[in-house]
Amino acid sequence: MDYLKTVIYVDNVEETLDFYFQAFAINTAQLDEDGQYGELDFQGARIAFASHPLAQSHFKQSYIRAQPKQPALGFELVLHVEDINLAFTKAVEAGAEPLSAPNEMEGKNLAYVRSIEGTLIALCE
């Protein structure tokens, strides 16, 4: 078995991809013609975003939508960064909600933000 990717369901795929580019300089690897599905390129690993209507066309069960104004879902993306202060500042300027400013935790420099679609993101230096 091989891990392929993680898909996060969002309200607006193109807006979400643009946020990740503005906040973290992560390029879009793929975006379909109708803007309902797109992928980010993390040097080989993929994180994808799909619109809620596309997700609902694949299965009929309901799910809890990630919403920036609701409690966060129980997972986080962890990104290694070279300069945690700069990465934190850029993310917040791009629209991320600051949750925990850069500080030392568990022997590492960590910071937390919440992306525009509601995903928790840990920045690790």
UniProtKB/TrEMBL annotation:
<dbReference type="InterPro" id="IPR029068">
    <property type="entry name" value="Glyas_Bleomycin-R_OHBP_Dase"/>
</dbReference>
<dbReference type="Pfam" id="PF00903">
    <property type="entry name" value="Glyoxalase"/>
</dbReference>
<feature type="domain" description="VOC">
    <location>
        <begin position="1"/>
        <end position="125"/>
    </location>
</feature>
<dbReference type="InterPro" id="IPR004360">
    <property type="entry name" value="Glyas_Fos-R_dOase_dom"/>
</dbReference>
<protein>
    <submittedName>
        <fullName>Glyoxalase</fullName>
    </submittedName>
</protein>
<dbReference type="InterPro" id="IPR037523">
    <property type="entry name" value="VOC_core"/>
</dbReference>
